[in-house]
Amino acid sequence: MGLSRRELLRTSGLGALALGCNRDDKPSSAAPRFTGQSPERGHLLRSAALLDAPIDAHIRAGVVIVGGGAAGFSAAWRLQKLGLDDFIVLELEPEIGGTARSGVLPRSPHPMGAHYLPAPPRECSELLELLTDLDLLVGYEHDGTPEYRSTAICAAPEERHFHAGTWHPGLYPSDGQTPAQEQQWERFWDQLRELDRVRDHDGELLFRLPVRRSSARLRGLDQLSMAAWLDEHGFDSWRLRWYVDYACRDDYGCTLAQTSAFAGLHHFLARGLEDTREDPLLTWPGGNGELIASLRARVDLGARLKTDHIVYAIDPERGQLRVRDLASERSISIEAQAILWAAPRFLLRHVLPRDRDPLSADALTYAPWLVANLELREPPGGVGATLAWDNVPIIENPAARNLGYVVATHQEGRDRAIEGGAVITYYQPLVADDPAGLAQHRAHLLGSDARGLSEQVLGALEHMHPGIRRHLSALHVHRWGHAMIRPVPGHLFGGALELARAPIGCVRACATDVGGLPLFEEAFYAAIDAADWALDRIGRA
Ligand SMILES: Cc1cc2nc3c(=O)[nH]c(=O)nc-3n(C[C@H](O)[C@H](O)[C@H](O)COP(=O)(O)OP(=O)(O)OC[C@H]3O[C@@H](n4cnc5c(N)ncnc54)[C@H](O)[C@@H]3O)c2cc1C
């Protein structure tokens, strides 16, 4: 049975998207609207109509990379670097980037998701090689310290927090702390320093990037939650616990109690201790989307990059993919020797034959996130510390916590005061203890209109900036239903990730989620390992 464009759009709910109008299309420029990744496109995988569509064309490729995000382009970079050109990249969205996608408002580009990369430690030689290729790492000083392109180094001030009506520098709420709280803060860092000094038998750090390369010595901590680790060490200061909870929410979309202690400590230790590290934080007005755009320019795929292409079925034994080109409404069959699944792992079971995925459907869980970009006629101010790149409210009620906002236009402040308004990106992980709670958040995200979600965002921002609505000229809402893999206790070393990474016939998964932590570094390493595997498989290693 043929599938007309109209039918496909109707069955998938893509009509509004294809017609170029927003779900919440209002004449005012400030009318909130959805932009970015379309949940409806992802849900096409559930549509039987796709499977019924006749095949219009057959093609062959040595390697097919499914997904045009950080992992997909890292795999492409590696294949090309090692001399293979016979590969294609398929991306279901019209734009590349995935969770690192950038958007543009008239005032500035901005992130829709991932927005920074800490400069990697020296052990991450492949990642340093990538950054050199992208002309971000421009050289090394005499003592071996990497030198980064200045425009990518986060401008000062990096962080401030909002507490009791005032902005304070940094992220730890030290103002008004008791001597006992101060002593706990010091003891926490002493504890981290002690862990940082310990070396494995190979002389390496215990906590490493990618996380699966970490030493076996402390892996037992993965069974414990970060909250339990803090309890065990007598850390009960709300200030310290808020600070560590913030780190877990920011990096993993999880609370202290939902984060594995190994993952929580990994955040502080895998790149060398945060309070002594001199390596900078790399960021761009458009967030990590600009990093992906550089990768795209570097690998220069031309017609081998196919956006608007959804992979909806894979035969892992025969190396056959069925793909729908959503722009031309054609269905294509592709024969490949190796398939790199650089898309979220939980989707793979939907394209494989029934019962072919050895990983159980609930083995990995993902945190939903609400993100919004606001274009403001005036940069946000406030009493106390000046506007920083990252601006975080201290909210004592854990149920009401959000991560505040990052300023896309902040990098302009390197050379001059930010003028002519600003674009800020609001971040809120939607945390829950169990899959039912996460599903409820997802239903809320997908069931609300842009105006409803924008009210949630504005309400949170008004707590920090009471008059913010007056300065608003545009508000774009991004819904991430399965934004981040959750490193809950037992997740990192409990066996599920090994199964998630294991090849299934000629398919190997390699997005950040099979690395275990939602980080660019994990996507990169999962992807280059998978690219090496693909080369081996096709006899080009
Ligand atoms: C709100 C948010 C903030 C974040 N902040 C940071 C940060 O600051 N720093 C950081 O390092 N990490 C951050 N992350 C984590 C980020 O997800 C990873 O760093 C990384 O970008 C993940 O890339 P990926 O390629 O593995 O997966 P994805 O980004 O999920 O890319 C997968 C791609 O596959 C495509 N796809 C899916 N199904 C199909 C199909 N059937 N056919 C074809 N294509 C398909 C998708 O459209 C997508 O483009 C953040 C994530 C979110 C959601």
Automatic annotation (TrEMBL):
<feature type="domain" description="Amine oxidase">
    <location>
        <begin position="71"/>
        <end position="491"/>
    </location>
</feature>
<dbReference type="GO" id="GO:0016491">
    <property type="term" value="F:oxidoreductase activity"/>
</dbReference>
<protein>
    <submittedName>
        <fullName>Flavin containing amine oxidoreductase</fullName>
    </submittedName>
</protein>
<dbReference type="InterPro" id="IPR050464">
    <property type="entry name" value="Zeta_carotene_desat/Oxidored"/>
</dbReference>
<dbReference type="InterPro" id="IPR006311">
    <property type="entry name" value="TAT_signal"/>
</dbReference>
<dbReference type="Pfam" id="PF01593">
    <property type="entry name" value="Amino_oxidase"/>
</dbReference>
<dbReference type="InterPro" id="IPR036188">
    <property type="entry name" value="FAD/NAD-bd_sf"/>
</dbReference>
<dbReference type="InterPro" id="IPR002937">
    <property type="entry name" value="Amino_oxidase"/>
</dbReference>
